[in-house]
Amino acid sequence: MSLSAMCFRALRPAGIQLRSVSLVDIHQGTGERSGQLIRGQVKEFNGQVYIDVRRYFIPEDSRTKEFLPSKKGISLNVDQFEAVAAAIPQIREMIADEKRENGLH
Question: What is the 3-state secondary structure (H, E, C) of the chain?
Answer without folding.
Answer: CCHHHHHHHHHCCCCCCEEEEEEEEEEECCHHHCCEEEEEEEEEECCEEEEEEEEEECCCCCCCCCCEEEEEEEEEEHHHHHHHHHHHHHHHHHHHHHHHHHCCC
